[in-house]
Structure formats: structure tokens, C-alpha cells
Design a protein that fits this description.
The protein is mostly beta strands and about 270 residues long. About 15% of the residues lie in helices and about 40% in strands. Strands 1-2-3-4 form a 4-stranded antiparallel beta sheet, with no helix packed on it. About 25% of the residues are buried.
Length: about 270
């Protein structure tokens, strides 16, 4: 789902329906869309559907765009019909920041820059010696995954996030997860197994999203209770205020409470 002004747009993959609702949940109408999308986002007044190597009545394109009422359909990044089984499911296909969104597809090394006016290749990710052979990468997606599992290859980017100055690329190498942080300004790269938040009991930051320059880490209440028992309660905190808040939260919530959000500001390099 995504939101434009006060309109909520919900995309139901199973029934191929794109529905509009107001902020109170009242049904406003259906958007006619005969393409296919693995994910949905909005820039300004325009909807974008990221299509991960699926054919549709609108043809083989990796990105579709239209307005809020299903008019003015636009098609970007065509691919051959013989590659329709090329891909696999990713954790996250897009990374927004202000009026620009970075978009990825499975088995593809190129990261595209998307605005409400243009779509263009912006970055290229190369895993060098661990890169999946091209013949496998453009072939059947299931065979490509088996090749990665049995060989010493990285299947590609699994999750993408960006802030004003950084791009966060997450991927797996066999049984290990990695995060590479790319500096947009000096083009430097740092790669690590885990991102650790020292103030938050040195907890590893694995699942997160970024809104502007804020990292949003989220977990279910049930998972939070388990984490508290085995991790949070035993962690060493440099900030006792955070420790006290976590302890209080553990006392107040039940397994059925709402998900827990942690918000972290990303410092600029010039900050002290």
C-alpha cells in the first residue's frame, strides 16, 4: 500500500485489484491496472508498480506508472518475454528519499533512479568474483537460486534503503548476512556483518526502513518480549534513559500489543 495526500491505495496481488480508500477506510473506487507489480510506491501524485520479471496484459516492463485514477499509463525498462521466469522475491524493491526513489529488481546489478518525470540507471553493484554468472542470472530464477546455494555466489541485493548521504545495501553470502553502506558524497563503501546501535544495548539492526534521515526499526510485541528476555535485559547500555524506557515498555506490553518502533537519527559526518 501507499498514500497520496489523504488517499490510501491498497494493491491486492491475488485478485489484481488496486483500491482507493479515504483516511477513515471508506472505499473510494478501484483503479484499472492490467499490468503487474511486486511492490507499490508513490512520488507526488503518481503511482509506481515495480514488476519483478512477470508478463502481463501491458507487456514485459519492470516498472509501470499512472495517476491516482488509473490514467496515463507509462511503461519503463522493457525486458524480453523469454526472461519472465528470471526473478525471485526480494525483501524490499525500492528506497525513497524526498522526491527520488531508488529501485532494484532481482538478478539485476543496476539500481535505477526514479522521479515523477524520469527513470534512469544510477548505480551499478558488482559482487566481482562472487557474482552470479550472466547466463544463469538471465535464465530461470529457480535454477539461479540453486546455483547460488550450491556454488560460492551471491544472488544479489535483497534489501535497499537510502538516506540523504548514504545507501544501505543488504544481501546474503551463503548463511551470512551483510550490509554495505555507500557514501554518496565521497563514494566510499563500508561492509559489515551487523549494524550495531551502541546506545541501544549494542543490539544488531537487521530489519529497518529509512524515512528521510531517520532509521525506523520495527518488531512485533511478541518478538520484543522474547528479545527482552534473552537480549535486552542482559545488554550493556551507554544511555540509561533508553535502558529504563525498554524496561518500562516490557512491563506495559503484552504479546498482542501493537508493533514496537525504534527511531534513530542518522548523523551527518560533520556532526559531533
Amino acid at each position: 500500500c501507499t498514500v497520496i495526500d489523504s488517499t490510501i491505495i491498497l494493491y491486492d496481488h491475488a485478485s489484481a485489484k488496486v483500491n482507493r480508500y479515504n483516511i477513515d477506510g471508506k472505499f473510494l473506487g478501484r483503479i484499472a491496472f492490467k499490468g503487474w507489480g511486486s511492490s507499490l510506491f508513490a512520488i507526488g501524485k503518481k503511482l509506481f508498480f515495480v514488476n519483478d520479471w512477470s508478463n502481463s496484459d501491458e507487456g514485459c516492463y519492470r516498472l509501470f506508472a499512472m495517476d491516482l485514477f488509473g490514467n496515463h499509463l507509462e511503461k519503463y525498462i522493457p525486458f524480453p518475454k523469454k526472461q519472465t521466469n528470471r526473478g525471485w522475491v526480494l525483501d524490499r524493491y525500492y528506497a525513497p528519499h524526498k522526491d527520488t526513489v531508488l529501485v532494484i529488481n532481482s538478478s539485476c546489478d543496476t539500481i535505477y533512479k526514479v522521479t515523477d518525470q524520469n527513470v534512469s540507471p544510477r548505480y551499478y553493484v558488482d559482487f566481482v568474483k562472487k557474482k552470479l554468472p550472466e547466463q544463469k542470472a538471465i535464465g530461470d530464477g529457480r535454477e539461479a537460486l540453486i546455483t547460488c546455494r550450491n556454488g560460492d555466489y551471491i544472488q544479489g541485493i535483497q534489501t535497499l534503503n537510502q538516506s540523504e548521504n548514504f545507501i544501505f545495501i543488504q544481501y546474503r553470502d551463503k548463511n551470512h548476512s551483510y550490509t554495505s553502506i555507500y557514501n554518496k558524497n565521497d563514494k566510499g563503501i563500508i561492509t559489515c556483518h551487523h549494524m550495531t546501535l551502541t546506545q541501544n544495548g549494542k543490539i544488531n539492526l537487521a530489519k529497518f526502513k529509512i524515512d528521510q534521515n531517520t532509521i525506523i526499526s520495527y518488531t512485533s510485541a511478541n518478538d520484543f518480549k522474547l528479545l527482552y528476555e534473552y537480549v535486552y535485559s542482559k545488554a550493556e547500555y551507554s544511555d540509561l534513559v533508553i535502558k529504563n524506557k525498554i524496561e518500562l515498555l516490557n512491563q506495559l506490553i503484552t504479546d498482542d500489543s501493537n508493533p514496537i518502533l525504534f527511531l534513530y537519527k542518522i548523523r551527518n559526518q560533520s556532526d559531533t
